[in-house]
């Protein structure tokens, strides 16, 4: 994997994007309505025109979840050209949240394009670095990841802004630790959202050490809480697939309360909805499953993802 420090000082154009071209022959009233609609859609963070020809949305691969995430959109799942936020439920769940970010990036990226992973160098020393054998166990090619070690959170956000603007990236993941990382605010995340909308690059903001119940305000299209879950043993009591508990905390269409227990199948590169299959009759309709207190052990100093 490559280690790159990005400290670009180039100015960023944060002007709104209008993806709708208004024909001259339409009436003035119709033109005004279309322009207004374009501005609303642009502000929502959804990519409305796919110049690259790539699908406008990506999915978990689970019908009930993808359909629920449709919201007011025209396709199931989550918009590719947008910012999505993932929070580790507890400190011990940081590895699971990192793995979920990578797996979502793997599901929505073009195989010919790399994933740009940006971390703070100090946090990487404390939490552990990406572990190539662990990536391979998830079915992810370590060579498909470009790793950027930024000196601080401001540099990490700057590197993310540079990466998101490039359509050569399959996805961008920026990992920030702590409850209030310096530079993380509505302005910075708005820039990431607008860049993702313009380039169509899926952008994931990975948060560890944060407070999912009282997060910093951002312009993310969706916000998720992720924790480790016990896996289901395979035949001969072999270790099962990696499992996660996920809960939707925020969605631009106003959705909330969606939760699921998922497992990752590396052979087919899809998630399985194991929590829904095991639901009992007295489980609430929202299917919320309390996260376990700990996750499976990983090698010291390395990250299983």
Characterise this structure.
By secondary structure, the protein is of the alpha/beta class. It has one domain (2-7, 52-303): 3-Layer(aba) Sandwich (Rossmann fold). It contains eight helices and 14 strands. The chain has helices spanning 28-44, 63-68, 94-108, 121-127, 132-137, 153-164, 186-199, 274-277, and strands spanning 2-4, 57-58, 78-79, 83-88, 115-120, 129-130, 145-150, 171-177, 203-208, 222-229, 243-251, 259-265, 270-273, 302-303. The chain has a ten-stranded mixed sheet with strand order 1-7-5-8-9-4-10-11-12-13, sandwiched between helices. It has a two-stranded antiparallel ribbon with strand order 2-3. It has a two-stranded parallel ribbon with strand order 6-14. Strand 12 and strand 13 form a beta hairpin. Helix 6 (153-164) runs parallel beside helix 7 (186-199).
């Amino acid at each position: 994997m490559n280690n790159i420090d990005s400290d670009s000082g180039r100015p960023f154009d944060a002007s709104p994007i209008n993806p709708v071209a208004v024909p001259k022959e339409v009436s003035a009233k119709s033109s005004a309505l279309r322009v207004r609609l374009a501005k609303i859609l642009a502000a929502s963070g959804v990519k409305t025109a796919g110049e690259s020809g790539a699908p406008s949305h990506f999915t978990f691969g689970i019908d009930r979840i993808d359909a629920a995430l449709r919201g007011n959109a025209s396709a199931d799942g989550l918009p590719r050209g947008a910012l999505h936020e993932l929070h580790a439920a507890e400190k011990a769940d940081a590895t699971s949240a990192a793995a979920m970010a990578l797996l979502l990036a793997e599901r929505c990226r073009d195989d010919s394009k790399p994933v740009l992973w940006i971390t703070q160098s100090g946090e990487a020393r404390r939490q552990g670095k990406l572990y190539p054998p662990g990536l391979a166990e998830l079915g992810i090619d370590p060579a498909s990841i470009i790793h950027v070690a930024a000196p601080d959170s401001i540099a990490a956000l700057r590197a993310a802004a540079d990466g998101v603007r490039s359509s050569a990236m399959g996805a961008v993941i920026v990992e920030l630790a702590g409850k209030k990382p310096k530079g993380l605010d509505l302005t910075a995340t708005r820039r990431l959202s607008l860049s993702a909308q313009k380039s169509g690059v899926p952008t994931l903001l990975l948060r560890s050490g944060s407070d999912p119940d009282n997060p910093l305000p951002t312009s993310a299209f969706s916000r998720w809480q992720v924790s480790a879950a016990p896996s289901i043993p395979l035949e001969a009591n072999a270790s099962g697939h990696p499992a996660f508990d996920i809960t939707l905390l925020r969605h631009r269409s106003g959705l909330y309360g969606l939760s699921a227990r998922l497992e990752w199948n590396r052979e087919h590169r899809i998630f399985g909805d194991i929590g829904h299959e095991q639901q009992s009759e007295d489980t609430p309709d929202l299917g919320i499953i309390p996260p376990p207190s700990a996750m499976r052990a990983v090698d010291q100093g390395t990250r299983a993802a």
